[in-house]
Design brief:
Structural class: alpha/beta
CATH architecture of the largest domain: Alpha-Beta Complex
Strand content: 15-25%
Helix content: 40-55%
Number of domains: 2
Order of helices and strands: HHHHEEEHHEHHEHEEHHHEHH
CATH topology of the largest domain: 2-enoyl-CoA Hydratase, Chain A, domain 1
Radius of gyration: 21 Å
Number of strands: 8
CATH class of the largest domain: Alpha Beta
Distance between the termini: 46 Å
């Protein structure tokens, strides 16, 4: 069953009417129902297109968090063949919030690292809603170093509200683990491509998103803090999250304009959750294009260009 966001109510009403008419048609009631269904379908499609052509930053935040949006494991299943997941950080334990392993992307060996939020109650609890602990980031470092050793490109799929802020995570060195993971992204000599597929939250995102090419889905968000967190700090009122989202410049379009992301990946009309296969296919094309542009560079150049890219962001915005 499709889940609708608050601002999608006009479309929800039209599509509910379509389902009612289809049920009547299936029962053999009425002869002109087909024409009416077609008319309402056209109207619903137009309403959906209009809605998604002018989304506010807060509405994009809702779309980025949509429970039916494809997650990391969906991308891995569709884009990566012969995937072999690896677990553990060799120091403390395993963290299911970060998926990592090796496989083949379009016949090329790759290392894949990504946040997994989960798609139902059990999997969300298992993956801690995509909020990684220190062992998750240390696992990411281990995999990046392994990929670097075997000269295998790295693909990162980012979808997290942020790193897990629990006491245990802090005791085990959350900040240090994020810093080491960011450092590993900068130091490896193989190309790395990061894609913000949903939420890109704070250091928890950038820990694996410090890449040669940073791509972002059309309705994803990327920010140093959530709109609710910013509203809580600025106004001590989370109800002002919409105002915070508008001022924070968290959308793909704003971030491409600022040079923080390199390209925006178009989503199907109505968002990636409406047509996950199409969204995943478009993402695969964008990743392939990004990797192709880096393929003939030597190790020193790959690392240098990555460092220069992020240094330039600081100079531009500073």
């Amino acid at each position: 069953m499709r889940s609708y966001l608050d601002f999608e109510k006009p479309v929800a009403e039209l599509e509910a009417k379509i389902e009612e008419l289809r049920a009547l048609q299936a029962n053999g009631e009425g002869v002109a129902i087909g024409d009416e269904i077609n008319r309402i379908e056209v109207k619903a499609a137009a309403a959906l297109k209009e809605l998604y052509s002018e989304l506010t930053p807060w509405q994009k935040t809702q779309v980025a968090r949509h429970p039916q949006r494809p997650h990391c494991l969906d991308y891995v299943a569709a884009l990566i063949t012969d995937f072999v997941p690896l677990a553990g950080d060799r120091k403390h334990g395993e963290d299911a919030a970060i998926i990592g392993g090796f496989g083949r992307f379009r016949d090329e060996s790759v290392c894949v690292i990504g946040h997994e939020k989960g798609s139902d109650t059990d999997s969300r609890l298992k993956h801690n809603f995509g909020m990684a602990r220190p062992e998750g980031y240390r696992k990411a470092v281990r995999l990046m170093e392994m990929a670097d050793h075997f000269e295998v490109p790295v693909i990162a799929l980012i979808d997290t509200a942020g790193a897990y802020p629990g006491i245990g995570a802090e005791e085990r060195g959350q900040a240090e683990a994020i810093a080491r993971s960011t450092e590993a992204c900068l130091q490896i000599g193989v190309p790395n491509v990061a894609v913000i597929i949903g939420e890109g939250g704070s250091g928890g995102a950038i820990a694996i998103a410090t890449a040669n090419r940073v791509l972002m889905l059309e309705h994803a968000i990327y920010s140093v803090i959530s709109p609710e967190g910013a509203a809580s700090i600025l106004w001590r009122d989370t109800a002002k999250a919409q105002d915070a989202a508008a001022g924070m410049k968290i959308t793909a379009q704003d971030l491409e304009r600022f040079g923080i992301v390199d390209a925006v990946v178009p989503e199907p009309t109505g968002g990636a959750h409406r047509d996950p296969p199409a969204a995943i296919a478009a993402t695969g094309e964008a990743i392939a294009a990004a990797l192709a542009g880096l393929r003939n560079l030597d190790r020193a150049t790959v690392a240098r260009l990555r460092r220069e890219k992020f240094s330039a962001i600081g100079q531009t915005l500073g």
